[in-house]
Amino acid sequence: MNEPEQSSSGAPSPFPIVTEQDRIASEREAIENALRACNGRVSGKGGAAELMSVKPTTLYSRLKRFGIDAKTFKA
Predict the structure, then answer these.
(1) For 1-27, how does the pLDDT look when each residue is reduced to its tens digit (9 = 90+)?
(2) What residue spans define the domains of the chain?
(3) Within 13 Å of residue 39, how many CA atoms lie on the same side as its CB?
(4) Distances in Å between the alpha carbon of 43 and those of 18, 30, 48, 59?
(5) Which of 5, 8, 12, 27 has its CA 20 to 30 A from that of 45?
(6) 63-73 burial, b for 16+ CB within 10 Å, e for fewer?
(7) 35, 44, 38: which is closest to 70 by C-alpha?
(8) How many CA atoms lie within 13 A of 28 on its CB side?
């Protein structure tokens, strides 16, 4: 099992601490997994946006921010 995170005082924290870098990596991974599951389809019925419960415009913005090309996930 993972050791507890430590607070800035050095004491173990009872709550998991997620850094900004971890959050960004997790978000990128979730987007890539959704695109794989949807064969690169971003919007419309059965698209990654629908799967992730976000608006297609939001997902397109995130793709641009992360530099992800949805076409690379097409089967």
Answers:
(1) 455 555 566 677 788 889 999 999 999
(2) 20-65
(3) 4
(4) 29, 16, 6, 9
(5) 27
(6) beeeebebeeb
(7) 35
(8) 12
